[in-house]
């Protein structure tokens, strides 16, 4: 049997190429995921312990009072203590904003806790001196000796950069200032722990409610936390690996089914000459095992190379990534998974193949004409899955239940796959009804539907990718619509420059409008009003300002003043209560008094909004008090806020607006979309290998038939076109079906996951994105048959006819 | 009765030539493993006659037929069919030429398994995008006795019936010449007789030119002319040979 095995493997090597490619891609995918997450994990956890290296204990607390008490106690008793946490503040230099948000942490004045690695300069010796992270400083062009302003308004502190340091990702910040300065940024300051050089007892005395633990324990806990975070990412990625592998299984199963069908006669002959069914099965399984081992091995090597390359590439931009390393357990598992998947995929086809009767060898060879049909049990099961899945999905929508949705999705998709051998040929025949049918089209359709199960499996592999991509893209687009609406409400203005107490120059509007990225700017007239004891600008907002995002235009009706929440909070308690309870307040402008109804809100800076008529009643001669601007899509948020901050600073006005937040959220959704599409692409590539494989193997199978057709007058071009049409039919049917099923899934997903969180969430179909997916899948189907079609057309009729 | 032995190129005078070869060679492979399947064949096949190409297995019969029919390219020499030199044609032109001028019957695997007998017969017309000449179709179907089998798939037909469908397909386009490669190779003697009878009738009644490759003496007996080929070279071209003459020609060469 060994001779047979070796000979047949050698003889069929080329036919196994596609299946091996599918396995290898899947295995490589796992290895790459492992290497990327491994490098991320080692990079992020490497220096977690650095900040607490000089401390014996870490005191975890989140209340400001306890932090203050700890710091005081430390100062009193001479215990080294370093707060762990950061403030997020804008940083400006000479009135020019360098960055909208910078993480600022404490720089210790105690040499024992100066844990950062000094690259240049010295550590701070007093308040007013700062350390800058060398990488972040480089990108913002901050140099040694620069004086930068951290924060805004009264709380802002000016510090001089006296040292450049290198600090690790997990624990590092961009800027380090002494506690005295950091404490002033209390609006955004969040300290979660204090590295404590004294005894545990001393710490407990100062902060009785805090948790005190040895520094080593704390570091271990942080590392575990970070690891869990990375693990979550790894698990998400593995989900896509599982999808890719599932597609791989479809491709391999199909390959084996086709190959075994083609070798049925060989098998029968072997059985005739005395090979037992068991021996035959063993031989075939060994063949699958060998294929699995080789393909998985190739996958591991490819994955290791790709992983090393990717990690190296990522490290160029993201310096906190650790070095690439091949984790033996992970890689070993990938190898095992690849081998087992191959063996598993060969299981069913092997059973079918070995059931061949020895007699089959004696029947006349009528050419390979494998027909398969959908069994009745299969259709029954399909019906069961489809109805059960639909019921579960309906249940999920009704009850907003995620588990029901996932179960329903899987079950109904299995139903779609099971019904494939009927559905796919039916759809292909339907496509054949399209006008302008000729002999080539008819030939292609005939070939495509000849073997329903094979066709269905081939289509299914692509169907999986298209369905999931469609569902995810549509889900994300719908979420994005919901998020956008939310953003419009929270951030109606991209940018606002609001006067503090003196009017603005009339020319400011023009300068704002002229800023790169601003598409529209409006000046608003107003006056300075006193509300309670608080002075604030009162702006007259008319109907359509043209710069406000979302459906609400921010314009209040006559007799109404819209006040920011923050201003209401500043009011004396008595007035504040009046606002909350009676929604009324008295506004005074230069002695003129008006009691107005109050609406509260946010998103337009520190100012009250009234209608132009109300404003005129309070101040007959309003002056320019604010400029509102709208930014164009794709504008760089940091550049814009830097430019506008310079204008606002020069005018002594405040800069506000939500463009940075909006672009940040947009970026997150974009990254998510890109990541999902990238990860799904692997499954789609495997599916295309599968299509090429099916067509390629069919070419071998149909060699005589094609030769006959060529003898009969089918030109090379016609043959190539017939194959192209066959591939195109397969991929388009899979694409159309996948898009339809994907849209249904997305609709259910939006109802279950988004509608529960954001009410009235709409269903947004990203038509262009889906069109691109469909075009790529469809055309890729065409591309998949280039090689098989060329190979088929190359054979001369005589050579084709001479085949045994 | 004319008999031309050895490199006979003789043609019954007064008859048009359907196909001819001059200095036709075909070799497979190169170096030590070169196989000379045809060594300088000169041959003229008269129109309107039933010619058999005879020779032992491996003598180059199929190769000769493939080259004459434009299914395979000659290594050197010229092939002219219906007055057209095939050497100057590229693959597409050759294919179009086959569509118009040549019909085929093969030993096995003649029919597309997914098409019915009727569809198989009409396949060449469909490929060429030519309109179906109903009279011709009915006539051919009637001559071959297939009227009640047209809706059947090949797998539902006997071997003899399958070959008759193949012959019908070859005839329906009214080609200048029909090539048949061992059309009875897979049939029992009764079915063989029937198929050969049909081929002869298509020459007599429909005026076709048929060239048949065979290694069976019985089959050759149905032909008008016999070309004997041995080891890649034509050794005899007999016109209306008697049984004895034929046996002598074959035996003389084999010995
Ligand atoms: N594709 C091929 N490659 C190599 N040798 C071939 C090929 N086809 C035929 N031959 C050789 O050419 C010779 C003639 O073959 P063929 O024309 O098929 O003979 P016949 O039909 O008379 O049995 C034989 O020796 C055969 O082995
Ligand atoms: Mg032969």
Automatic annotation (TrEMBL), chain A:
Location in or out of the cell: Cell membrane
Annotated membrane topology: Multi-pass membrane protein
Domain ABC3 transporter permease C-terminal per the UniProt entry, residue ranges: 239-355, 679-797
Statement: the UniProt record of this protein carries the keyword Cell cycle: no
Record carries keyword Membrane: yes
Keyword vocabulary terms for this entry: Cell membrane, Membrane, Transmembrane, Transmembrane helix
A GO MF term: transmembrane transporter activity
Residue ranges crossing the lipid bilayer per the database entry: 16-36, 232-261, 288-314, 329-348, 379-398, 404-428, 459-477, 671-700, 721-747, 767-787
A single GO cellular-component term on record: plasma membrane
Superkingdom classification of source: Bacteria
PANTHER family attached to this UniProt entry: ABC TRANSPORTER PERMEASE YTRF, MEMBRANE COMPONENT OF TRANSPORTER-RELATED
Record-stated family: Belongs to the ABC-4 integral membrane protein family.
Name by which UniProt lists this protein: FtsX-like permease family protein
Organism the protein comes from: Nocardioides ganghwensis
TrEMBL record, chain B:
PROSITE patterns named among the record's database cross-references: ABC_TRANSPORTER_1, ABC_TRANSPORTER_2
The keyword Membrane is assigned to this record: no
Pfam entry (one): ABC_tran
Keywords carried by this UniProt record: ATP-binding, Nucleotide-binding, Transport
Keyword ATP-binding in annotation: yes
GO molecular function: ATP binding; ATP hydrolysis activity; transmembrane transporter activity
Domain ABC transporter as annotated: residue spans: 19-250
InterPro entries registered for this protein in UniProt: AAA+_ATPase (IPR003593), ABC_transporter-like_ATP-bd (IPR003439), ABC_transporter-like_CS (IPR017871), ABC_transpr_LolD-like (IPR015854), MacB-like_ATP-bd (IPR017911), P-loop_NTPase (IPR027417)
Gene3D superfamilies: P-loop containing nucleotide triphosphate hydrolases
Matches recorded under SMART domains: AAA
One term under GO cellular component: membrane protein complex
SUPFAM superfamilies according to UniProt: P-loop containing nucleoside triphosphate hydrolases
PANTHER family in the cross-refs: ABC TRANSPORTER RELATED, IMPORT ATP-BINDING PROTEIN
UniProt name for this protein: ABC transporter ATP-binding protein
Species the sequence originates in: Nocardioides ganghwensis
Organismal lineage: Bacteria, Bacillati, Actinomycetota, Actinomycetes, Propionibacteriales
């Amino acid at each position: 049997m060994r001779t047979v095995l070796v000979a047949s493997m050698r003889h069929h090597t080329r036919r196994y190429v596609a299946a091996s490619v599918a396995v290898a891609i899947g295995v490589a995918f796992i290895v790459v995921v492992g290497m990327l997450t491994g490098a991320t994990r080692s990079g992020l956890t490497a220096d977690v312990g650095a900040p607490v290296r000089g401390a014996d204990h870490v005191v975890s607390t989140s209340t400001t009072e306890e932090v203050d008490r700890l710091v005081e106690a430390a100062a009193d008793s001479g215990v080294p203590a370093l707060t762990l946490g950061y403030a997020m503040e804008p940083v400006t230099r000479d009135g020019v904003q360098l960055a909208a948000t910078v993480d600022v942490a404490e720089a210790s004045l105690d040499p024992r806790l100066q844990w950062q690695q000094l690259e240049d300069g010295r550590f701070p010796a007093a308040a007013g001196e700062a350390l800058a992270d060398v990488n972040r400083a480089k990108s913002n062009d901050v140099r040694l000796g620069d004086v930068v302003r951290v924060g805004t308004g009264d709380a802002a502190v000016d510090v001089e950069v006296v040292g450049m340091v290198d600090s690790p990702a997990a624990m590092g910040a961009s800027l380090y200032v002494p506690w005295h300065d950091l404490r002033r940024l209390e609006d955004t300051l969040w300290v979660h722990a204090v590295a404590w050089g004294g005894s545990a007892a001393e710490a407990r005395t100062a902060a009785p409610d805090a948790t005190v633990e040895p520094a080593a324990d704390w570091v271990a806990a942080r590392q575990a936390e970070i690891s869990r975070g990375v693990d979550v990412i790894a698990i998400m990625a593995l989900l896509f690996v599982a999808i890719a592998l599932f597609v791989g299984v479809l491709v391999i199963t199909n390959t084996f089914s086709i190959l075994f069908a083609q070798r049925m006669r060989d098998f029968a002959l072997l059985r005739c000459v005395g090979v037992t069914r068991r021996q035959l099965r063993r031989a075939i399984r060994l063949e699958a095992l060998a294929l699995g081992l080789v393909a998985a091995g190739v996958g591991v090597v490819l994955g290791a190379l790709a992983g090393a390359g990717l990690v190296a590439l990522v490290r160029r931009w993201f310096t906190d990534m650790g070095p690439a390393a091949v984790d033996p357990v992970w890689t070993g598992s990938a190898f095992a998974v690849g081998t087992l998947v191959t063996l598993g995929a060969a299981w069913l086809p092997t059973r079918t193949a070995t059931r061949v009767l020895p007699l089959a060898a004696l029947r006349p060879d009528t050419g390979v004409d494998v027909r398969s049909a959908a069994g009745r049990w299969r259709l029954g099961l399909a019906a069961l899955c489809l109805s059960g899945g639909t019921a579960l999905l309906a249940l999920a929508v009704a009850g907003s239940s995620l588990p029901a949705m996932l179960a329903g999705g899987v079950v109904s998709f299995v139903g779609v796959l099971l019904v494939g051998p009927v559905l796919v040929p039916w759809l292909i025949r339907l496509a054949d009804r399209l006008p302008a049918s000729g002999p080539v089209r008819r030939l292609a359709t005939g070939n495509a539907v000849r073997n329903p199960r094979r066709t269905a499996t081939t289509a299914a592999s692509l169907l999986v990718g298209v369905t999931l991509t469609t569902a995810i893209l549509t889900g994300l687009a719908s979420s994005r619509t919901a998020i956008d609406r939310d953003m419009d409400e929270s951030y109606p203005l991209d940018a606002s420059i609001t006067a503090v107490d003196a009017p603005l120059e009339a020319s400011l509007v023009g300068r704002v409008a002229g800023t790169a990225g601003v598409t529209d700017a409006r000046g608003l007239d107003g006056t300075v009003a006193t509300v309670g004891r608080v002075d604030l600008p009162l702006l007259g907002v008319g109907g359509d300002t043209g710069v406000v995002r979302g459906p609400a235009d921010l314009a209040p009706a006559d007799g109404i003043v819209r006040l920011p929440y923050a201003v209401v909070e500043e009011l004396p308690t008595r007035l504040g209560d009046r606002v909350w309870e009676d929604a009324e307040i008295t506004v005074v402008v230069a002695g003129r008094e008006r009691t107005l109804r109050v609406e509260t809100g946010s998103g337009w800076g520190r100012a009250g909004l009234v209608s132009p008529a109300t404003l005129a009643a309070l101040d007959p001669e309003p002056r320019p008090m604010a400029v509102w601007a709208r930014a164009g899509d794709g504008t760089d948020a940091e550049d814009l806020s830097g430019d506008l901050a310079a204008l606002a600073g020069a005018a002594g006005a405040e800069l506000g607006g939500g463009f940075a937040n909006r672009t940040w959220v947009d970026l997150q959704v974009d990254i998510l979309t890109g990541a999902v599409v990238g990860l799904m692409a692997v499954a789609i590539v495997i599916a295309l290998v599968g299509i090429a494989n099916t067509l390629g193997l069919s070419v071998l199978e149909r060699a005589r038939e094609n030769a006959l057709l060529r003898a009969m007058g089918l030109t090379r071009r016609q043959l190539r076109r017939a194959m192209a049409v066959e591939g195109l039919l397969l991929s388009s049917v899979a694409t159309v079906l996948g898009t339809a099923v994907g849209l249904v899934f997305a609709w259910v997903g939006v109802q279950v996951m988004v509608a529960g969180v954001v009410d009235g969430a709409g269903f947004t179909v990203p038509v262009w994105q889906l069109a691109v997916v469909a075009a790529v899948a469809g055309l890729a189907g065409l591309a998949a048959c280039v090689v098989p079609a060329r190979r088929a057309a190359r054979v001369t009729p005589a050579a084709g006819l001479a085949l045994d | 009765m004319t008999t031309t032995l050895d490199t006979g190129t003789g043609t019954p005078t007064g008859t048009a030539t359907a196909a001819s070869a001059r200095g036709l060679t075909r070799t497979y492979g190169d170096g030590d493993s070169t196989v000379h399947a045809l060594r300088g064949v000169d041959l003229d096949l008269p129109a309107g006659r039933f010619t058999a190409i005879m020779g032992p297995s491996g003598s180059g019969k199929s190769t000769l037929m493939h080259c004459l029919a434009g299914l395979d390219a000659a290594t050197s020499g010229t092939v002219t069919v219906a007055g057209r030199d095939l050497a100057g044609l590229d693959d597409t032109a050759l294919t179009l030429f086959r569509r118009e001028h040549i019909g085929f019957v093969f030993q096995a695997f003649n029919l597309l398994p997914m098409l019915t007998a009727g569809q198989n017969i009409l396949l060449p017309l469909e490929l060429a995008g030519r309109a179906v000449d109903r009279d011709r179709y009915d006539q051919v179907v009637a001559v071959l006795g297939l009227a009640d089998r047209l809706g059947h798939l090949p797998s539902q037909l006997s071997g003899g019936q399958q070959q008759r469908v193949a012959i019908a397909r070859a005839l329906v386009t009214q080609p200048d010449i029909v090539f048949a490669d061992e059309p009875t190779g897979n049939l029992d003697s009764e079915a063989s007789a029937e198929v050969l009878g049909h081929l002869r009738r298509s020459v007599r009644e429909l005026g076709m030119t048929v060239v048949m490759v065979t290694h069976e003496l019985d089959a050759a007996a149905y032909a008008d002319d016999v070309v004997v080929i041995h080891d890649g070279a034509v050794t005899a071209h007999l016109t209306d040979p008697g049984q004895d003459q034929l046996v002598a020609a074959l035996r003389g060469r084999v010995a």
